[in-house]
Amino acid sequence: MKLVYFEDKTIGEKDFTGKPPEHGEYEGCRFVGCNFSEVDLSEFIFSDCVFTGCNLSVVKLEKTAIRNCKFNECKILGVNFENCNPFGLAFSFESCNLGSASFFGRKIKGTRFRNTNLEDVDFTGCDISGAVFENCNFKGATFDNTNIEKADFRTASYYSINPEKNKIKKAKFAMPWVLGLLNEYNIEIEN
Question: Is-contact 60 81, C-beta < 8 A?
Fold first, then answer.
């Protein structure tokens, strides 16, 4: 299927739930206040795009290319980023709700998550080394065989990470949430 090419286009306040956007390659485009909820975006290409105030909950991303895209103030619940095209996969999230999303097995080194809800997110088998998690909530998030080396969790909260099952060398943590590294040991800690 041939892709239609769009460049530097701004698309605002569109509801794509009934009629999805045209299947294509979007480069340098801005999506503002758009509703993509449950839309099939499989095999689309998004490069250097910005999504602001969009609802992308439960979108289908089978072989979708997301390259250097920014998500600001977006609702992205239950999205399986693990299905994205891994080539050039790069994005950042600011003030987003990524609850119940999955990054299973993805290499997303150096990704920036700022003021973002990451409740129940699956980072199993993921390489998030060097990532920055500024003011992020990890309640119920899964870290198993995850590379978090040199990642910055200093202002993150509610994480529970087993140091024996994850690579954590030179990761940055701060009190009091660093105690989340001890949850697996079922010990009691007092001030």
Answer: no
Indicate if the alpha-carbon torsion angle 166, 121, 75, 21 is positive or negative: positive
Structure letter (DSSP) for residue 42? T
Q: What is the pLDDT of residues 105-156, one digit of tens each?
A: 999 999 999 999 999 999 999 999 999 999 999 999 999 999 999 999 999 9
Q: Which two structure tokens, joined as six digits, stand for 113?
A: 């998550």
For the chain, the structural domain boundaries read 7-19+26-94, 98-179
Residue 80: phi, psi to the nearest 5? Answer: -95, 85
As assigned by CATH, the class of the 98-179 domain is: mainly beta
Distances (CA, A) of 124 to 2, 78, 82: 34, 15, 10
Q: Do domains 7-19+26-94 and 98-179 have the same CATH topology?
A: yes
Among all chains, which residue has been given the structure tokens 């399986």? 80
Q: What is the pTM (predicted TM-score) of this model?
A: 0.94
Cβ–Cβ under 8 Å, residues 135 and 154: no
**Topology at the third CATH level for domain 7-19+26-94:** Pectate Lyase C-like (2.160.20)
